[in-house]
Design goal:
Belongs to the G-protein coupled receptor 1 family. With 355 residues, the protein is an all-alpha fold. It has nine helices and no strands. The protein is globular, with a radius of gyration of 35 Å.
């Protein structure tokens, strides 16, 4: 009996592999026990105990980024832009009679604005639904927005050039050469804009040097200034072309004495429309262009949002100005939606010079 107790004591002190100075008290709160370490377990199988405390719980995931109302406004604007311009593209695609150079340029403008709207939606998804640290996706999104908005501005310039040529060369405008030049101009516009869109992904970005960022990360300050100066040159050229259009229109009005009063009234209306188009275009883009020149990434982001949102709204009003005011497109829309044309709709063919 005594020998048996002595053997058991020796087994607990040395043979069990445990230090006798740390008693295995099941009520000791400094030690943790798993389910199969329960000392009250009456199973005949030996219980396996661990003296290591339980690992602390894994750190919780970072809270999701707070939803900015400015980003929501940009996403809503992008959705509206996409719907409007998708409708314009569908009408032009399914109407065989709308193949004149003027409609080719309107379709190119609608495609650019459609991509711009999709780019705004994609940017919202990348910020709030995808890991924002994915640099490749961020660069692709920035490239899409740069290419789309650049194409939008250049297509507006191309439409202005087309209107000027239709007045300046009225006798030779409707020729095959004009159609060829129009398609060539569209190809040049998209080639240049695609090249601009690829620049961030090819290394022209500020991801490696945050101090070099512009107000629109990841575009560098130098690139943003270059794009803003290019826009100012485009806007100046548009103003000069519209001024020449007004001069030619007034000259035509003075040359026809019989219809002088009618043409003077219609010409005044056309000049007012041109002024409204230029003012709307300038009001949308000039604040952002000027701010991109003077500001950098250290400026409060609310100023960036306040200037970017009007610029995106230009893509909302472009379909209204250049597509939905056109009687031919209006007729196609009425036929597609209602199957008829309202009697008060003007069926006079609309020329490129019409504003």
């Amino acid at each position: 009996m005594i020998l048996t107790l002595a053997a058991a004591a020796a087994a607990l002190s040395g043979g069990g592999g445990l230090n006798s100075s740390y008693p295995l008290d099941p009520l000791d709160p400094s030690r943790s026990w798993s389910l199969d370490e329960d000392p009250s377990n009456s199973s005949s199988e030996p219980a396996t105990r661990s003296l290591l405390p339980e690992a602390p719980p894994a750190s919780t995931a970072a809270p999701p980024q707070a939803l900015s109302p400015w980003d929501v406004a940009l996403c809503v604007t992008g959705t509206l832009v996409s719907c409007e311009n998708a409708l314009v593209i569908a009408v032009l695609f399914y109407t065989p009679t709308l193949r004149a150079p003027m409609f080719v340029l309107i379709g190119s403008l609608a495609l650019a604005d459609l991509l711009a709207g999709l780019g705004l939606i994609l940017n919202f998804v990348l910020v709030y639904l995808v890991d924002p640290s994915a640099q490749l996706l961020s660069l692709l999104s920035a490239g899409l927005l740069i290419a789309a908005f650049s194409a939008s501005v250049l297509n507006v310039l191309a439409i202005t050039v087309d209107r000027y040529l239709s007045l300046y060369n009225a006798l030779t405008y409707h020729t095959e050469r004009t159609v060829t030049c129009t398609y060539l101009m569209v190809l040049l516009i998209w080639g240049a804009c695609l090249a601009l869109g690829l620049l961030p992904a090819l290394g022209w970005n500020c991801l490696g040097a945050e101090s070099a960022c512009s107000v629109c990360r990841p575009v560098t300050k130098n690139n943003a200034v270059a794009l803003a100066v290019a826009f100012l040159l485009v806007f100046a050229l548009m103003m000069q072309l519209y001024l020449q259009i007004c001069k030619i229109a007034f000259r035509h009005a003075q040359q026809i004495a019989v219809q002088h009063q009618f043409l003077a009234t219609s010409t005044t209306k056309g000049v007012s429309t041109l002024s409204a188009i230029l003012c709307a275009f300038g009001a949308c883009w000039l604040p952002f262009a000027m701010y991109s020149i003077v500001a950098d990434s250290s400026y409060p982001i609310i100023y960036t949002y306040a200037t970017v949102l009007p610029a995106t709204c230009c893509s909302v009003i472009n379909p209204i100005i250049y597509a939905f005011r056109n009687p031919d497109i209006q007729k196609s829309l009425w036929m597609a939606c209602c199957g008829c044309v309202p009697p008060n709709l003007s069926l006079r063919p609309r020329a490129s010079s019409d504003v």
